[in-house]
Amino acid sequence: MIVSLSTLVKMPLAMTGPLACNQNTLKGINKVGPSNAETSTSNPGMFQLDIVLKKGHNLAIRDRGGTSDPYVKFKIAGKEVFRSRIIHKNLNPVWDEKVSLLIENLKEPLYVKVYDYDFGLQDDFMGSAYLRLESLEQKRPMEVTLTLKDVRYPAHNLGSLLLSVSIYPKEGITREATMHLRRSWKRSSKVITSMYSILRLSEVHRKSQLWRGIVSISLIEGRNLKPMDNNGFSDPYVKFRLGHQKYRSKTMPKTLNPQWREQFDFHLYDEEGGVIDITVWDKDAGKRDDFMGRCQIDLSSLTKEHTHKLELNLEGGEGTLVMLVTLTASTAVSISDMSVNILDDPKERQAIVTRYVSPLRSFHNLKDVGVIQVKIIRAEGLMVADVTGKSDPFCVVELGNDRLQTHTVYKNLNPEWNKVFTFNVKDIHSVLEVTVYDEDRDRSADFLGKVAIPLLSIQNGEQKAYVLKNKPLTGPTKGVIYLEIDVIFNAVKAGIRTLTPVEQKYIEEEPRVSKQLLLRNFNRVKRCIMALINAGYYINSCLEWESPQRSLAAFVLFLLVVWNFEFYMIPLALLLTLAWNYILIISGKDTRTDMVMEDMLEDEEEEYDKDDKDSERKGFMNKLFAIQEVCISVQNALDEVASYAERIKNTFNWTVPFLSWLAIVALCVATVILYFIPLRYIVLIWGVNKFTKKLRDPYTIDNNELLDFLSRVPSDVQVVNYSHSSHKGRQIRS
After folding, report:
1. Which of 71, 110, 238, 507 meets the CB 3.0–4.6 Å disulfide criterion with 249?
2. pLDDT in tens, 32-89
3. DSSP of 519-531, one letter per residue?
4. Residue 382 to residues 75, 443, 466: CA-CA distances in angstroms?
5. How far apart are CA 147 and CA 131, in angstroms?
6. Could you give all domains of the chain from N- to C-terminal order, each with its CATH number?
7. Cβ distance 320 to 224 under 8 Å?
8. Is the dihedral of CA 50, 56, 61, 65 positive or negative?
C-alpha cells in the first residue's frame, strides 16, 4: 500500500496526542525540495530569536533629580518574556544583556516597553516601540534602533534603544522528518511510526519547560557597609534580579556587618549565562528605603559545577558583600506534560539508573544524591472554596527549597493536571510536600489540603491515592490526590549525606503562639520523661527486692556484666536492641508506634467535635485548666533545672565556704581512690552496696548522696533572699 504525501499531511487533523500538537511541523513537510530550507514567514514554524539589548540614548526624565532608573520589558503576544536589570540614575544606560527566545510565529511583533523604577510606588512609563519580526532578514544579526513613543504624547521625544536582533529557523526536526518521508514514502506503516517518534521529539522541545541549569547563591555576609541612619547604623537587606526572577533577603537591624546566611536558587534558561543584578537597601519604616550600593555577577565568567566565593565591592556605596555562587549545568528541576516522561522510556531510565546507582559514581558529586519524578495526575472531592460551589485548584510541589506548581483548573472540584515534576535529590531523608490551593485573584490563595511523603517511604511506579490533610498534618480534610512517584538514588551518597547538616528551609511560616501546640509539646516531653521515670522505678524495685526472683536475677546480671565489661559491649547492646525491635516489627507484635499515634491524635479529636455546645464549652474549660497545669509544670521544671545548675556554680564560687571545703575533701578522697583502685572494682562495690542495702537494713531510706549535697547549696535566688545589705548610719547634718 502506497500512501501519498498529501494523505500523510491530512492525517494528523484527526489525531490526538503528540501528532495533534505538531500540525505546523507537518505543514513544513508538505513541500519537499531544497528550497524548503529557507522557511517562509507565511508558514508558522519554530524560530530562535536572539536579542542583545545594548543601550539606550536620551531617555526620558522621570525623577526629581533630572535622571531615571530605566529598565526594559519585552512582550510577545501579550506575555512578558524578558525584563532587563535596572540601571540607576542614567539617561544613557548600557545593558548589554542577551536573551534567546523560541517563537512559533514571526507575525507576532516584539513589544518593547521602558519603565522608570520607583521603589514602593508604581513604576513610571518611559516609552514603547514595536519591532516587526517578519520584516527582519534571517540567519544574520542586525542592529535595530527603536524610537520610543507614548501614544498619549506623540510629539514628545522619549529617546531610543539600540538592539541587535538575530532570527534562526529551527529546521532540524523538519529536515529529519522530510528525509524520513523521502526514504520511506512507499512504506506507510514505517512512515507513521517514524513520524510519531519525530513529533514526540518535537514535543520534548516545545512542551518540556526544562531550564538549562541552576544558579545557587548563598548570601553569607556584608562587611563595612555604609551607615544610613542617625544612630550610625543601617538596617540592610539585599535584592537579587536575574531576568524576571527576583529575590529579597531578610532585613538585619542596626548593623554594618550583617550576617544573612541565606540561600537563593535562580533558574538559568540561557546557555551563555546572564548577569545577576544585586542591590543593597536600608530599610526605613514609613518612608522610602535608602539605596546603599549595587554590584553584579557575570555568570558567563564562572565555571560550571564549581562553588565560587565572591567578595563584591558595592558601587555607589561602601563595603562588600560575601557570597558563594554555584553554577549547575545539569537540570535539577523541571516541569513537563505527561507525554514528556523520561522515566517511561526504558533507555532513558536505564541511563539515569546507571548515572546514580553505579558504584563507580558513588563518590562523584556527593551533593547529587539522586532524582525524583512526581506525576501529579488528578484530585477528587476537593473542598468548596468559592461562592459558586466550586474551586479553582492548583497544586504546589516542594522538596526542600525547590518549589514548583501546576496550572490552575478553574471551577472544578475534580481537577486533572497530568503534570510531571522532576527534582534533584540532595538528601534522601527529605520530605516531599504536595499542597493544593484555591486560586483567588484578589487575595492570597486558599488552602485546600496537603500531603507530606518521606522519600524513603515511596514505592516506585505505584499510582497511589493520598488523603489530603490539614495544614499541621494532624487530621484529614476533604479530598484525595492521585500521585505516581519514582525515586532513584545512590545509597552510598545518601549514607554520606546523612552525616552532614540538614539543609535549612528558608521558606517557612512564622511561628505563632498556640495553646494547643504548647499543650501537645508538653505532653510529648512528659511522655519521654515518664519513660525514664518508669525505668528508674523498675531499677529501684530491683534494689528494693520487691520481687526476690527478679532482684536476684538483676543482681547476678549486674555482677556478670561489670566483671566482664568491655567497651565494645556498648555498641553491641545498642545493636541487640535494634535487632530485637526489628524482630518485633516484622512479626507484627510491636504496637508502640500505633500507641504513640493514638496519643498524638487524642488531643486533636476535641477540635473536630463542634456539634454539641455543652461539650464544646466543657472542652474549652478543660483546655484552659490543662494549659494552666502545663504552665505551672513548666515553671516548676525550669526552676528545678536552673536551681541545680546554679548550685553547682555556687559550690565552686565559695558561696558557702563550709560546703566548698567539704567538696574539696570529697574530691581528694575520690582522686586517691580512682588512682589506686580500678574503676571496675569501684562500680562492683557501689552496686553490691545498692543491692544489699535493703537486705542489711529493711527500713533504710534510699538516697543519692550527690543530690543531697547539692540541695544544701543555695541557688542564686536563695542567695539574694538570704542576703542582708549592711546599713551604715548616716550622719545627720544640722
Report:
1. 238
2. 333 333 333 334 457 788 899 999 999 998 888 888 889 999 888 777 788 888 888 8
3. HHHHHHHHHHHHH
4. 36, 20, 12
5. 10
6. 5-42+172-210 (no CATH), 47-169 (2.60.40.150), 214-328 (2.60.40.150), 334-498 (2.60.40.150)
7. yes
8. positive
